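Subject: Sanity check before I submit

Could someone independently write out the structure tokens for this chain? I want to compare against mine line by line before I put it in a report. The sequence has 351 residues.
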Amino acid sequence: MRSCAARFSFLNAEAAIVRALVEGELEDEEEPERGADEGPEQEAVSEAIAPTSARPFGAPLFDRRIPERLMGVLLIGGSFSWATELARQPISPGSAPLDLGLRASPKTPGAGHATLYLGTTQVLGVHLRADGLFSLSPHQRGGLFKDVAVPFDESWREWQPLARLTESMPRIRAHLEAAMAVAPADRQVEGLYQAALAKPTDTEFTLVDREVMLAFGSRTEKLEWTDELRRPLVQAQLRLAAIHPWAGQASPPGDKLDALAIDGDGRLLAIEVKPGAETKGLTWTPIQVAMYVRLLRAWIEADEDSARKVLEGMVRQRAAARTRLDRGTGTLRTDRDRACDSGREAHDPAP
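---
Independent answer below. Compare away.
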């Protein structure tokens, strides 16, 4: 597994310590006692899932493959294919940084949802329940968006047959356009870079997912696993603090990954997104990415075959969402065939 992060000369020493810890070249020390300023507790992702005999108890879980029924409404000819088409638009000056996130819960087979992001903010969610009913969710409330000229109809939140939502599609589209027009600008800075990762480019990787957060069977299991995986990285922070006073104010690394991708050689990439002008906190990027690497390795090593299938399936669905009809030939073509093919093979996602 390779981690992608901004690299500058003044980070080399810090990155070397972290790299050695991640690769197991340095032994973990007992963590010194820390006070109440240890840092905020990370939000738990509770998934009530019974562990299998092959999976270590409490090991991380990750599977965002959505049901084919939901994929069908997002692709060409589907009721919400227009939302997918919006997300395909290339990034250009003045354009909206849109991307489509595909989400599913490991504890609810047959259910899932698609989120249309503007930057890092949801502007529309399309949800499928295991019984085949659909519902919509709006943009975030609480004053983040200004007044939306075409308000969200609360009846769209109700679980209902797809046909009923289809009847309201002109108003749904009008609402989305109105919400996009008043979306918070500050959420579109880093979100611009995240959306750009999902667009067809000449880069040698294809996106698996963005804003990745692994799930755990319970809050207790999450805390136990993340504390164990975080411990050597906190050790590295403490060592740096003994040398550099500025390092003493660092918070423990978090567990929400900006983006997950697969390169042309089938290697899994953990990506931390940082705008070029954002230098605050950049010093800790290697440690932050190292935490993602350790989490992903824990997930993969728990069941490599399952992890491979999940990654391949997610790449295929991402590729399908970037597919459009070639009207000249009547065939379907992907925007990034080469990257997509390498992602489908994903011949060695394990570290």
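---
OP: Matches mine. For the report I'm noting this point. The chain has two domains: 2-60+208-306, 68-199.
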